[in-house]
Write a structure and sequence with these properties.
The chain starts with a strand and ends in a 27-residue tail after the last helix. It is an alpha/beta fold and 404 residues long. The protein is globular, with a radius of gyration of 21 Å. A hairpin with a 5-residue loop joins strand 13 and strand 14. It has two domains: 181 residues, FAD/NAD(P)-binding domain (3-Layer(bba) Sandwich), CATH 3.50.50; 196 residues, 2-Layer Sandwich (D-Amino Acid Oxidase, Chain A, domain 2). Helices cover 28% and strands 26% of the residues. The structure holds flavin-adenine dinucleotide.
């Protein structure tokens, strides 16, 4: 039997970063991960730090305006945090924050950029609206079809293969314990504490974790796209849904694209990484496997997504046409019912917290820092009430209270 103050379910970016912040706040932490650390979305994503509102949020902006406004102070904290991350963790993360542009090709898209600019700057974001000629001077690699862009000086990218593991190493140095190969399959509320049980995620893999029992005061559900499955183990619904996404990477090229490039009306994100490869994504779907709840299943690539993504990229940056595609891969991320993060204590479950939701690479360090403050001190430096799972309490009104 293992015991700790906080058991974190999920060893992705949010789980590992929370392990770091919680141990720093004096908590005894065990992270339970069904597979390997960083094997989920956190190690498979595009690594974009997109602080501007994204395409996916914009599509429904009118309905979501009030809610989205809450993301802006949060974004300012995320920018501050990213600027100090390599120093904090003491590692090279291939982090660059040299600016990002969100481009528009049509009059309609330009109008959306203008509205977006007004909305975001009204809420305190620092953005620059670039005309076609200003854009030509700053980003000569763009095709002539691009008419304008919104520039955010803080945007950039970071290597997703490094960040989570850097947090895990830093947490380990402070005393956090990591049990990998340990899938949580039972969660029970006892009188004053939680009881969890794990099994090996791969049959017979006793060497890397497996069957064990845990007691803790607090649970943090950081199971990403699988947070709903993990929630059900404790008797609650958490409205987060798995989505399969596609990524593409080209061969190495000489310096070409000097920004994070996104599109206001098409699915596109692009950046050139330190080795010279261009990473291309932006929300093209991949086929989801039968979801097992283990967090290990990879989505299958779809040919039409790969072609659609590359064609879009080559239309915006024509020099890409000369490059070979090196590799395509997929990942599974979690999208909440209203696209906002799920961050806070679950009202039906005492001392049961969740931290999950979209754009979790850009905002993962911030979700983790704030949820750790809430767990350890009962309050946070930035308001997170708008993201509380309490906003979905109505879907849990007929669920049993765990342990009753
Ligand atoms: C292809 C792709 C591109 C993306 N691009 C970007 C981007 O550019 N910028 C951005 O901000 N965001 C991006 N995202 C989203 C981002 O990657 C995720 O929001 C973020 O990584 C989520 O981190 P997490 O720790 O919540 O989840 P994960 O990294 O998925 O970690 C969850 C972990 O929980 C484990 N788990 C699940 N069930 C159990 C269980 N029962 N017991 C124990 N462990 C369990 C899983 O094995 C997994 O390791 C992208 C996502 C994908 C898939």
């Amino acid at each position: 039997m293992h015991s700790c103050d906080v058991a974190i379910i999920g060893g992705g970016l949010i789980g590992c970063a929370a392990a770091f912040y919680l141990t720093r706040l004096g908590k005894r932490v065990i992270v339970l991960e069904s597979d390997a650390l960083n094997g989920g979305a956190s190690g498979r994503n595009a690594g974009s730090l997109h602080f501007q509102l994204e395409y996916r949020l914009l599509e429904y902006q009118e309905q979501l305006q009030d809610h989205i406004a809450h993301l802006v102070p949060f974004t300012r904290r995320a920018i501050e945090q990213w600027r100090g991350l390599e120093t904090l963790l003491g590692e090279d993360l291939e982090l660059v924050m040299h600016g990002g542009i969100m481009v528009a090709e049509t009059a309609d898209q330009l109008q959306r950029l203008q509205q977006k600019y007004e909305f975001e700057t009204r809420h305190g974001m620092q953005l620059e609206l670039l005309s076609r000629s200003e854009l030509r001077a700053r980003a000569p690699y763009l095709d002539d079809r691009v008419q304008g862009a919104l520039y955010c000086a803080d945007e950039g990218h970071c290597n997703p293969r490094y960040l989570t593991l850097a947090y895990a190493r830093a947490a380990q140095r402070l005393g956090a314990v990591f049990h990998t190969g340990s899938r949580v399959h039972s969660v029970q509320r006892l009188r004053h504490e939680w009881a969890l049980a794990t099994v090996a995620s791969v049959a017979g893999d006793a060497e890397h974790g497996g069957r064990a029992d845990y007691r803790c005061d607090t649970i943090l559900n950081a199971a990403g796209a699988w947070a709903a499955d993990v929630g059900r183990l404790a008797g609650v619904h958490l409205p987060i849904f798995p989505v399969g996404l596609t990524m593409n990477v080209t061969e190495e090229a000489p310096p070409l694209v000097g920004h994070l490039v996104q599109h206001v009306g098409r699915r596109l994100s692009m950046k050139q990484v330190r080795e010279g490869n261009l990473l291309i994504g932006g929300g093209w779907s991949a086929r989801l496997p039968e979801l097992t709840g283990t967090g290990s299943a990879a989505a299958r690539p779809l040919y039409r997504s790969v072609c659609g993504n590359l064609a879009t990229a080559a239309e915006v940056v024509p020099a890409l046409r000369k490059l070979h595609l090196l590799r395509t891969w997929t990942g599974v991320t979690g999208v909440t019912a209203d696209q906002l993060p799920l961050l806070g204590e679950v009202p039906q479950l005492p001392r049961y917290f969740v931290a999950a939701g979209g754009s979790g690479f850009t905002f993962g360090p911030t979700y983790a820092e704030l949820i750790s403050q809430l767990i350890a001190a009962g309050e946070t430096a930035y308001p997170i009430a708008p993201f509380s799972p309490a906003r979905f309490s109505h879907i849990n009104m007929f669920m049993r209270e765990a342990g009753h």
